[in-house]
Amino acid sequence: MGPMMQAMAEHLRLTNFIMNVVTSDVKEEDAKQRARDSEGPSISWIVGHLLGYRYDMMKLLGQEKANPLAGTFGSSATDGSDYPSLKVIVAAWNGAVQEFDKVIASVGDEQILAKMGGDGSPHGEKTVLQTLSFFLWHESYHMGQLGTLRTQWGYRQTSDIAQEAAKTTA
Hints:
The chain has helices spanning 3-23, 28-31, 35-38, 43-60, 86-104, 109-113, 128-152, 158-169. The protein is an all-alpha fold. It has one domain (3-169): Four Helix Bundle (Hemerythrin (Met), subunit A). The protein is globular.
């Protein structure tokens, strides 16, 4: 793994850690509760949405893998009645993490600096690096949403539980 991917991998590992921490205590009825007067995303939708993007990143890096929950979450949130349980979604996330770790292990800087072929980038990015940077920002954006929903539904703040979990795994 090249130094550029190594830096991104650290960011991804932190997201993986926090994802498991912030979902571990959420009750199923809260996981499917939607923000913004039932118009916005739910915790379940956010995790499933990000799962899809992890598979998009693997494809971008040349390793297309099958998302076990492909097509479940769509581009916008629904009432969640057809979503699997949060435990199933998080298990799928953790499966994707294992697959993704294998993919990025062999990614060198030349691959990251390569120009994008065709029109495969989300917002007109020109290189793999620019697209990966967008994906990392996108994950961070939605992780913030998870933290907001946690506190809105009465759960402890992400920063508090993440710090406690980090101490117990250190």
